[in-house]
Amino acid sequence: MSNFVGIDVSGIEEIIAKINALPPKAQDEVVQGVNKYLVNVLKAYPPYKHVPFKKAYGKWFSEKQRRYVMARITEGTITPGMPNRSQRFSRNWKVVGYGKTSIIANEIPYGPYLVGDTSQARMPKKIGWSKLKDTIKNRMSKIIKIADAAVKKALHKVGLN
User: Fold this and answer.
1) Which of 131, 158, 42 is nearest to 95 (CA)?
2) 106: buried, middle or exposed (CB in 10 Å: 19+, 13-18, 0-12)?
3) 116 and 137 share one domain
4) Which residues pair with 96 in a beta bridge?
5) Burial of 4 (0-12, 13-18, 19+ CB in 10 A)
6) Which of 29, 45, 94, 149 could cross-link to 154 by cystine, CB 3.0-4.6 Å?
7) Do 30 and 98 belong together in one domain?
8) Is 55 within a domain?
9) Which of 160, 144, 153 is nearest to 23 (CA)?
10) Distance CA 91, CA 106 (A)
């Protein structure tokens, strides 16, 4: 399993074609505008919702697992029902590179289990974490608006508007 959460968005071929028709500097401006928006969207945590382990998974996977969890509860390193939200996942979203060659990344090892399209665990799903593809799909109209505004701004910058 990779420790990398990546975004592969399909269904935006029309947007990509429009971006590719722009001058290179304008292309970079558009991608940067969309990247900035997406990073802000991806940083948002869902509202806290307590979901018991039994509701998410049905049972312990082994007696060893049950003993481990109970020992950690006794020790105080696990507090059932309390949100464990360090915001580490949120703080680690970043844009690597610039413009068309950039990618949005989060290298937190547990990221794929929270929002991965094929690797999301049951507990995060029940808590309310959306898969990346669903987050992008639900925000597509806003992404298009941001891209259009960035195109206008970029064309003005390079003197074509």
Assistant:
1) 42
2) buried
3) yes
4) 103
5) middle
6) 29
7) yes
8) yes
9) 160
10) 9
Given the structure tokens 């970029």, which residue do they identify?
154
Q: Tell me what pLDDT residue 5 has.
A: 59
Residue 24 host element (H or E): helix 24-42
Please state the rounded mean pLDDT for residues 72-93.
Answer: 85
**β-pair partners for 104:** 95
- Which of 1, 21, 6 has the alpha carbon at shortest distance from 103? 6
Q: What is the pLDDT of residue 161?
A: 64
Q: Rounded to two decimals, what is the model's pTM?
A: 0.77
DSSP state of 3: S
* 134 CB-near residues (< 8 Å, 6+ apart): none
Beta strands in 10-106 (DSSP E): 94-96, 103-105
Domain that holds residue 42: 13-48+85-157
CA 83 from chain centre, in angstroms, equals: 20
Q: Is 43 helix (H, G, I), strand (E, B) or coil?
A: coil
User: How large is the angle between the packed helices 13-20 and 24-42, nearest 10 degrees?
Assistant: 140
CA distance 70 to 60: 11
Eight-class DSSP state of 145: H
Q: Say what the pLDDT of residue 2 is.
A: 55
